[in-house]
Design brief:
The complex is a heterodimer of chains A (about 325) and B (about 325). Chain A has about 325 residues and is an alpha/beta fold. In chain A, about 30% of the residues lie in helices and about 20% in strands. Chain A has a domain of about 200 residues: 3-Layer(aba) Sandwich (Rossmann fold), CATH 3.40.50.300. Chain A has a six-stranded mixed β-sheet, with helices on both faces. In chain A, strands 2-1-4-5 form a four-stranded antiparallel β-sheet, covered by helices on one side. The two termini of chain A are about 20 Å apart. Chain B is about 65% helix and about 0% strand. Chain B has one domain: Orthogonal Bundle (MetI-like fold), CATH 1.10.3720. In chain B, a hairpin with a 2-residue loop joins strand 1 and strand 2. Classes of the chains: A alpha/beta (about 325), B mainly alpha (about 325).
């Protein structure tokens, strides 16, 4: 069967890449991050056509050493009788950005929400399979403890109705308490804001209501909030879909920097975004994971016909 | 075989739509819509006129009869209207009874609203509670008052009111405030619950997603976010409480002045009987026992002034605390 050549993707940003994190072998990252067993690495017909987004170079990025953080094993999630995710297995590594792509309703958000057990809050949700965090089954962990190690940023910017400072401090304080006091957490709050690239913009008005920030700033505040707990894994559920291109670029650059310290999993509808920021990509369709591969392979020579059609825009 | 008549197929195409005008007017609407619009206008103006008439009438009458000394003197028995004093005690009574009733209704109402909106388990109990609140909202306050007389005449609750040789009278600020809190409760519950449900679910999840419990989320995120609703609910509740007359007459005594149960300064007063502005108006209305319309108008004016001040204050507070919103 003759493959349709995927159309070129117009880059929204220039060709600037992320600053190299350290001296490391250039793309592809396969040497640093071995493919998990069971995932075919080469496409059937043997030839490797290279990146299909013709004329567009992927940002050259050095990939830090990848560390296994989470392991999803044969995960299935159902809402009542409706199967949302079917036997998905994949690794989540620190040092890499994993993008979950697929059409609407394919289960990628459900998969993401399973990683910090947010699915449990939905009535009628049931799941089977196993997810481990640093070798420990997350089902055996206290949900609140798990969610401090696997934090999440949502599609809509949703700062809490308090000051910028308190939004971050809220995470650092124990449940509903007001302690530790403001001065004791100031350093940690500023560090989290700096990691999210927001400190310079809000340093003078930390006491302003967070809901008065712009949409892009709100979303970066949400990232700061998620980082304040010093998580091992950061989950992003279409974090840029409500934002303008400029804010999107800021957040994408931020994600590129963050992946060194935390494992980043991002759900995105936007193939170009996945192409720009992901190191590994999992393509989901109708609850199944069709393919899991490095971004280069996924956008270059995907192994599965359905992936090929999806990344070329045949459906979506 | 489907054979559409040729005339239908060949029917002339409808005339092109009229060019869209920039400023929309109802002239182009169909007749029924225009009649509806006119009706809406008419009703709107009618209700404005009614509101203006009530406020205006009491403004004029109230200002005519309101004297500063009415606010600082107590009702007194006399045949001459100039000797019957003012309404200091009823005014204080209104303030005291509103504060006491809301001290009960606000925390209880918020707790019920949080439970219904955020927990709602067990579902059957939540449904029962919900219909209970609705039933309470529909209960006439005189029925609540009647129930209150039964309740507070019970010997076990004698410590809340006056007793006379072992007989519990059952009339006191405590008794009236307890029953009035039931009048305010449905307003608080409904408004706070609405406010909580208006918060998008992803805001809750954002709090859970950084490891917070439901209690912490409710306490630190949801209730602050619902603060405008809490204020509105409290205001509506206060409005109902200070406007109620039946419970005041039956459970507070409607005695125009405070009559302490004991000589203990505050507790004695609260265990004793008293009156509020509504009771005072009831007594002094042209058809009431007192029949001093000028005093009634002045008191009504003050009562309306309190309600209007509350409204404006709440509007101001709500607008200030509304910093922005989520999508």
């Amino acid at each position: 069967m003759e493959l349709r050549k995927p159309p070129p993707v117009r880059r929204l940003t220039g060709n600037e890449g992320y600053a190299p994190l350290r001296e490391a072998p250039p793309w592809p990252p396969d040497t640093a991050a071995p493919t998990p067993p069971g995932v075919p690495e080469s496409n059937g017909n043997g030839h490797h056509p290279g990146p299909a987004f013709a004329g567009v170079a992927r940002p050259t990025r050095a990939v830090p050493i990848a560390i296994d953080r989470m392991q999803v094993e044969d995960l299935s999630v159902a809402y009542g009788a409706k199967q949302a995710v079917q036997s998905v297995s994949l690794p989540i590594r620190q040092g890499e950005v994993l993008a979950l792509i697929g059409p609407s309703g394919c289960g990628k958000t459900t998969l993401l929400r399973s990683l910090n057990r947010l699915t449990e809050l939905t009535r009628g949700a049931s799941s089977s399979g196993r997810i481990t965090l640093d070798g420990v089954d997350i089902a055996s962990m206290e949900p609140t403890a798990l969610r401090r190690r696997v934090t999440m940023v949502f599609q809509q910017p949703n700062p809490f109705p308090m000051s910028v400072f308190d939004n971050v401090a809220y995470v650092l304080r124990e449940q509903a308490k007001r302690r530790p006091k403001r001065e004791a957490v100031r350093g940690a709050v500023q560090e989290a804001l700096a990691r999210a690239g927001l400190l310079d913009e809000v340093a003078d008005n930390l006491d302003h209501p967070a809901l008065r920030l712009s949409g892009g700033q709100q979303q970066r505040l949400c990232i700061a909030r998620a980082l304040a707990a010093s998580p091992e894994v950061l989950l992003l559920d279409e974090p840029c879909s409500a934002l303008d291109p400029q804010s999107t670029k800021l957040i994408e650059d931020l994600i590129g920097r963050l992946r060194e310290d935390v494992a980043v999993v991002i759900v995105t509808h936007n193939l170009q975004q996945a192409y720009r920021i992901a190191d590994y990509v999992a393509f989901m369709y109708l609850g199944e994971m069709v393919e899991y591969a490095s971004a280069q392979k996924m956008f270059g020579s995907p192994g599965e016909q359905r992936t090929r059609e999806y990344v070329s825009g045949a459906f979506g | 075989m489907s054979s559409a008549p040729a005339s239908l197929i060949a029917a002339p195409s409808p005339p092109p739509p009229a060019p869209v005008r920039r400023s929309e007017s109802s002239a182009s609407w169909r007749l029924t819509d225009r009649i509806g619009l006119g009706f809406a206008w008419l009703l709107g103006l009618l209700f404005c006129a009614i509101a203006v008439a009530i406020v205006g009438y009491f403004l004029v009458e109230g200002l005519r009869y309101l004297r500063p000394n009415l606010l600082v003197t107590n009702p007194a028995a006399s045949v001459s209207e100039s000797q019957t004093g003012g309404f200091l005690d009823p005014l204080l009574g209104t303030v005291i009874i509103a504060a006491m009733a809301m001290a009960i209704a606000l925390p209880t109402g918020i707790a019920i609203a949080v439970w219904l909106s955020e927990f709602g388990r067990p579902a059957a109990l939540a449904r029962v509670a919900e219909s209970g609140i609705e039933m309470l909202a529909g209960t006439p306050s005189v029925v609540l008052a009647l129930f209150g007389t039964l309740l507070f005449e019970a010997p076990a609750l004698g410590f809340l009111s006056q007793t006379n040789h072992g007989i519990v009278l059952g009339q006191s600020f405590f008794a009236a405030a307890a029953m009035l809190s039931l009048v305010a409760l449905p307003m608080v519950v409904a408004t706070v619950r609405e406010g909580l449900q208006a918060i998008p679910s992803h805001v809750r999840e954002a709090s859970y997603a950084v490891g917070k419990t439901k209690i912490a989320t409710t306490r630190r995120v949801l209730l602050p976010a619902a603060r405008p609703s809490v204020i509105t609910g409290a205001m509506l509740g206060v409005g109902r409480v200070i406007g109620d007359t039946a419970i005041v007459l039956l459970l507070l005594g409607g005695t125009l002045t405070f009559s302490s149960a004991t000589s203990t300064p505050l507790l004695g007063t609260l265990r004793g009987t008293g009156d509020t502005l509504t009771g005072y108006i009831y007594y002094n209305a042209p058809t009431g026992d007192g029949n001093q319309p000028s005093k009634a108008y002045a008191a009504a004016f003050v009562l309306m002034l309190i309600v209007l001040t509350l409204n404006v204050g709440v509007d101001f507070a709500v607008r200030r605390s509304r910093a922005g919103g989520w999508n």
